[in-house]
C-alpha cells in the first residue's frame, strides 16, 4: 500500500495547479485548524468562516511558503493572524445580526458537557493565553513551535500555558 | 508512570470533525471563485493591451491594405471566409473547439 503524500509533495502539486492536491491539504488540516479557531472565539460558525478564509489565504500565498514541510505551522500562523485581525469585525457583525440569530434555532454543533465547560472556561482567559493553551494543551504542540506560530517569545508562551492551565483547572474543578 | 492530564478529557471532547466534506467543498468553491476573478482581470488586461496594440498599428495596416490593392483584398476575404467555414465545420463535427485559450496560472 502506498504511503500518503508528504506535505511538501502536496504543496508542490498544489503550486503547479492541482486542485486535488489542495483539497487533500484542506482535508488534512481542517480538523485541527477549525478546532483551534473554535477555541478562540465564542461561535463555531464564525470560527469555521475564519477557517475557510485561512485556507483561501493559504491557497493565494502558497508560492510564498519557503519551507513546504512546515505547512501545518504556516497554516496555523495564518489562522492566528486572521483570528486577531477579524475579532473586531466579527464582534460588530455579531452585534448587528444578534436579533436575527436569536430567532433562529440553534444550529451550532451539538456539544457535550465537557466541551461546553471547556468553552466557558477558555472564554475567561485573555486571547493570547487562550491561543497558547489551545495549541500546547489542546493540540499537543511544543512551547517552541507554539511560540513560532503565535509570534511570541518562548518565555511568554511558557508563562501563558502555565497560568492558563492553572486557571482552567480552577474553573473546571480538576487538579492542576 | 506519568499521571494522565486531567484537562485532556475536556480538550478531547471539544474537537471539530476531522474531515468535513461540506467544509472542503466550501473552501474549494471560494478557491475557484478567486481563481475566476483573477483570470478575468488578467484576460481583460490582456484584451485591453491587444486592442491598444491594434489601435496603434491600424494606420500602418490601412496603408498596407491600400498598397495591396483591390484584387488581393478580395483574395484575403475569400481565404478568411473559407477558414471560418472550415473552423465551424470542424466544430460541428467534433464539438471540439480547435482554438483554445491558454489557462493562465499565477497561483
Structure described in brief:
By secondary structure, chain A is mostly helical. Chain A is 74% helix and 0% strand.
Description:
The complex is a heterodimer of chains A (176) and B (107). The mean pLDDT of chain A is 86. Chain A contains 8 helices and no strands. Chain A is an all-alpha fold and 176 residues long. Chain A has 2 domains: 1-107, Rna Polymerase Sigma Factor, Chain: A, CATH 1.10.1740.10; 111-176, Orthogonal Bundle (Arc Repressor Mutant, subunit A), CATH 1.10.10.10. Chain A has helices spanning 7-15, 19-40, 44-60, 71-103, 113-122, 127-138, 143-150, 154-172. In chain A, helix 2 runs antiparallel to helix 3 (44-60) and helix 4 packs across helix 7 (143-150). Chain B is mostly helical and 107 residues long. Chain B has one domain (8-94). In chain B, 75% of the residues lie in helices and 0% in strands. Chain B contains 2 helices and no strands. Chain B has helices at 8-13, 21-94. The radius of gyration of chain B is 29 Å and the shape is elongated. The two termini of chain B are 50 Å apart. The chains are: A mainly alpha (176), B mainly alpha (107). The A-B interface holds A 17, 19, 22-23, 26-27, 30-31, 34-35, 38-39, 44, 48, 51-52, 55-56, 59-60, 62-63, 109, 111-112, 114-115, 117-119, 121, 137-138, 165, 168-169, 172, 174-176 and B 5-7, 9-20, 23-24, 26-28, 30-32, 34, 103, 105, 107.
Amino acid at each position: 500500500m502506498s504511503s500518503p503524500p508528504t506535505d511538501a509533495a502536496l504543496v508542490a502539486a498544489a503550486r503547479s495547479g492541482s486542485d486535488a492536491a489542495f483539497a487533500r491539504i484542506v482535508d488534512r488540516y481542517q480538523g485541527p485548524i477549525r478546532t483551534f479557531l473554535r477555541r478562540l472565539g465564542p461561535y463555531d460558525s464564525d470560527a469555521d468562516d475564519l477557517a475557510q478564509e485561512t485556507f483561501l489565504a493559504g491557497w493565494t500565498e502558497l508560492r510564498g511558503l519557503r519551507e513546504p514541510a512546515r505547512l501545518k505551522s504556516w497554516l496555523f500562523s495564518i489562522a492566528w493572524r486572521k483570528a486577531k485581525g477579524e475579532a473586531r469585525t466579527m464582534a460588530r457583525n455579531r452585534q448587528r445580526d444578534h436579533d436575527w440569530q436569536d430567532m433562529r434555532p440553534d444550529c451550532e454543533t451539538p456539544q457535550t458537557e465537557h466541551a461546553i465547560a471547556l468553552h466557558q472556561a477558555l472564554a475567561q482567559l485573555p486571547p493570547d493565553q487562550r491561543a497558547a493553551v489551545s495549541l500546547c494543551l489542546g493540540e499537543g504542540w511544543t512551547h517552541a513551535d507554539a511560540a513560532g506560530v503565535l509570534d511570541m517569545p518562548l518565555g511568554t508562551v511558557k508563562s501563558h500555558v502555565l497560568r492558563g492551565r492553572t486557571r482552567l483547572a480552577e474553573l473546571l474543578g480538576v487538579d492542576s | 508512570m506519568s499521571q494522565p492530564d486531567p484537562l485532556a478529557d475536556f480538550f478531547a471532547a471539544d474537537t471539530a470533525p476531522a474531515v468535513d466534506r461540506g467544509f472542503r467543498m466550501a473552501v474549494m468553491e471560494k478557491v475557484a471563485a478567486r481563481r475566476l476573478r483573477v483570470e478575468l482581470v488578467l484576460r481583460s488586461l490582456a484584451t485591453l493591451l491587444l486592442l491598444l496594440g491594434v489601435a496603434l498599428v491600424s494606420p500602418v495596416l490601412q496603408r498596407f491594405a491600400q498598397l495591396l490593392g483591390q484584387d488581393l483584398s478580395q483574395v484575403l476575404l475569400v481565404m478568411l471566409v473559407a477558414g471560418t467555414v472550415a473552423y465551424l465545420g470542424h466544430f460541428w463535427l467534433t464539438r471540439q473547439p480547435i482554438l483554445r485559450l491558454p489557462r493562465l496560472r499565477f497561483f
